[in-house]
Amino acid sequence: MEILSSYNLIIEVSVIIILSFVFNGISKKTNIPSVLMLIVLGVGLQYALNYFSEGKINFFPILEVLGIVGLIMIVLEAALELELKREKLVPILKSMAIALIGLIASAWVAAIILYELIPEMTMQSAWLYATPLSILSSAIIIPSVSALNDKKKEFHIYESTFSDIMGIMMFYFLIGKLNPSEDSGVIGFTGNILLTIVISLVASYAIILIFQKIKSQAKLFLLIAVLLLLYALGKKMHLSSLIIILIFGLVIANMKVFFAGKLSKFLEFKKAHQIYHELHIITLETAFVVRTFFFVIFGLTIAVGSLFNVDVALISTLIILSIYAIRFVILRLFIGTDILPQLFIAPRGLITVLLFYAIPKEAEIASFEPGILLFVIIGTSLIMTGAMIYDKKRNAKSTDIANSKKVGTTKWKAPSIDDIAEL
Q1: With the C-alpha atoms ordered 51, 12, 229, 354, is the resulting torsion angle positive or negative?
Q2: Cis link prior to 341 (omega < 30° from 0)?
Q3: Of 216, 252, 372, 388, which has fewest CB within 10 angstroms of its CB?
Q4: How does pLDDT run along the chain (423 residues), one tens digit per residue?
């Protein structure tokens, strides 16, 4: 039976997209992340492929490309949601600080756990393996927090986006340390970021000014192609390419801020705003499709048997416990006592998988079990699911209590002469 023939492939792709849409609906009602359902679907397809197909298919190249495109779309989607206002400066800086401290502290503890419990693991490699495990997944968080109040939802969008970007920058900074001759140090790394920001701003202004002049209706995929090209060229030039995507999203979503004063005369706001609106829709749709196939293919490639390995379970459990212990301390320091369900919204996902496969050969440790990756992803996602369900019930209960108190405290009022007259 030819599973990957043309028509079969069309049927399979169509069914997966339909199922993903159904999973999103189930996720909204149950708070179970659709990502988990997609991974389970991928695992099921893995067994089906093994049964019907004799040869083994290499999905890793597809997974890598989907991961990169998905990452770009997800960061762009998040950036398009962010409003830059004076009153939001403090929440943005606070979210950035929480994301940075959480990333470094989680990676440090996870690196120690990996170094101590995995044979042949060096501390340098341990940091490389620990970094992907310490990055929040905006791919899971952003679709999952829509039911939270605006303040908490905004915090999670900022925090997960910053965690993605800073985590990737930290990962490639650590890779640079593997080759001392190419390592530019902290000063060179900072200069790289500043150069990336300058290039990003220039490119963002240029793209908006040029695209508002294009009269053709078919220009959105051209815009996405330009962004993908900038990202890939940035990578070739060893720049922090994700910053290019983030800054472009921020500029086009906050045009009145970036085109203030004399610059406003160059902006045709109505046309530019239409580009923003259409880009928002197409980014949302593209991110959905790419995210769908990324996690299904990830499910197709994982070794499920490693989940039942005692060492994998022990290491993964210690890493998960460290994630929430560190997060508890940070949130209490920065936010105070109202840290539910934020404490437990710390899933790992797309970036974790993508960076794991980007670890250089010279830093790979043969004794590291990939099952640790899957265990942490599933564990943190299930914990988030439980926290979201609990928060939903708690809010419903508090609403019921408030309503019952309101009804119970309503005092009886004697009818007035006017009321009797009306009768």
Answers
A1: negative
A2: yes
A3: 216
A4: 466 677 888 888 899 999 999 988 888 787 777 888 888 898 888 888 877 766 667 677 777 787 788 778 877 877 887 777 777 788 889 999 999 999 999 999 999 999 999 988 999 999 999 999 999 988 788 777 877 888 888 899 889 888 988 888 888 888 877 766 555 666 777 787 888 889 889 988 998 888 888 877 777 788 888 888 888 888 888 777 878 888 888 888 888 888 888 888 888 888 888 888 888 888 888 888 888 888 888 888 777 777 778 889 999 999 999 999 999 999 999 998 888 889 999 999 878 888 888 888 888 888 898 889 888 988 998 899 888 888 878 777 766 666 666 665 555 555 554 554 443
